[in-house]
Design brief:
Blueprint: H1 3-16, E1 19-24, E2 27-32, H2 36-48, E3 50-51, E4 62-65, E5 69-70, E6 76-77, E7 81-84, E8 101-105, H3 111-124, E9 129-134, E10 139-144, E11 147-152, E12 156-158, E13 163-166
Parallel strand pairs: 8-9
Antiparallel strand pairs: 1-2, 3-13, 4-7, 5-6, 7-8, 9-10, 10-11, 12-13
Length: 167
């Protein structure tokens, strides 16, 4: 079994054990599967994603929760929400389509995974907007190649692709 297929199977097996497994730059990272607060935030934010009225973008603002993505460096991540301009191919393994934007909801004890490692990694792989939200503190961090903004929720964020969302 080739490495990407093998690691994807490990991700599936880890889910069965209640663990969310990812691989970033050859380093395995894990966290417990999210609780209800986390999942309700994912649903709420997903429901707010739309193409901005004042944009000329033709982005479809297609969004998927917790989808496995295989990045060009053979890293595997599963953002809480991935936003694509077109629908990824319907595959049974990880997609190789790079999202335009990702949203991560911080779970207690895993702040570094999303802020210290996740944000810079996504930007290095071509993701244009990385939004990290901590529902306990209401802190919103919006990262782009040109800088990082720290805010407090609620915030409506316009992504470079023309999609907007509210955290």
């Amino acid at each position: 079994m080739a490495y990407p297929d093998y690691f994807f199977q490990l991700m599936v097996d880890a889910d069965k054990a209640g663990i969310k497994l990812e691989m970033v730059g050859g380093v395995p990272m894990w966290e417990a599967l999210p609780g209800p607060r986390h999942q309700f935030e994912v649903l709420r934010i997903e429901g707010s994603i739309r193409r901005a009225d004042n944009t000329k973008s033709d982005c479809g603002c297609v969004h998927l929760p917790d989808v496995a993505i295989r990045f060009p460096d053979d890293s595997f991540k599963r953002p809480d929400i991935s936003i694509f301009c077109r629908k990824p191919d319907e595959e049974d393994t990880a997609t190789i389509l790079i999202p335009e934007a990702v949203v991560e909801i911080v779970s207690p004890g895993y702040e570094a995974k999303d802020l210290t490692f996740g944000g810079p990694f996504y930007l290095s792989q071509g993701v244009k907007d990385v939004i990290v939200y901590d529902p306990r503190t209401l802190v919103v961090v919006h990262m782009r190649k040109d800088g990082t903004k720290h805010m407090f929720a609620p915030q409506t964020i316009l992504c470079e692709c023309g999609c907007e969302l509210t955290v």
